[in-house]
Amino acid sequence: MATAKTATASSAKAANDTVSASEIEANIKRIREDISALAGSLKNYSAGKGDE
Predict the structure, then answer these.
(1) Long-range contacts made by residues 8-17, C-beta under 8 angstroms, separation at least 24?
(2) Among 26, 37, 49, 51, which has the minimal tally of Cβ within 10 Å of its Cβ?
(3) The predicted structure's pLDDT at residue 11
(4) Which pLDDT tens digit goes with each residue over 15-42?
(5) In the chain, what are the helix, strand and coil shares in percent, each to the nearest 5?
(6) How far apart are CA 24 and CA 32, in angstroms?
(7) pLDDT of residue 1
(8) How far apart, in whole angstroms, are the C-alpha atoms of residue 18 and residue 10?
(9) Distance between CA atoms of 52 and 15, rounded to whole angstroms?
(10) Please, are residues 5 and 34 in contact by the beta-carbon 8 Å criterion?
């Protein structure tokens, strides 16, 4: 099962810090992977519910 990832001191930025395009791209990639994992989990959950 996928687990939520929380921001840590090393990955969290203050609102006034600058963020590079590569950081944004990396975050978008991570979010897409998280959404994909969530979709897979929901599919497996739904399949299990159909057996009940």
Answers:
(1) none
(2) 51
(3) 60
(4) 668 889 999 999 999 999 999 999 999 9
(5) 60, 0, 40
(6) 12
(7) 46
(8) 14
(9) 48
(10) yes
Q: Is the pLDDT of residue 47 over 60?
A: yes
Other C-beta atoms within 10 Å of 35: how many? 10
**CA atoms of 26 and 13, how far apart (whole Å):** 14
Cα 42–Cα 43–Cα 49 angle in degrees, nearest 5: 85
- Contacts with 40 (C-beta within 8 Å, 6 or more apart), sequence order: none
Contact 12, 52 (CB under 8 A): no
Pair 1, 45: CB distance under 8 Å:
no
The residue whose two tokens read 């009940």 is 52
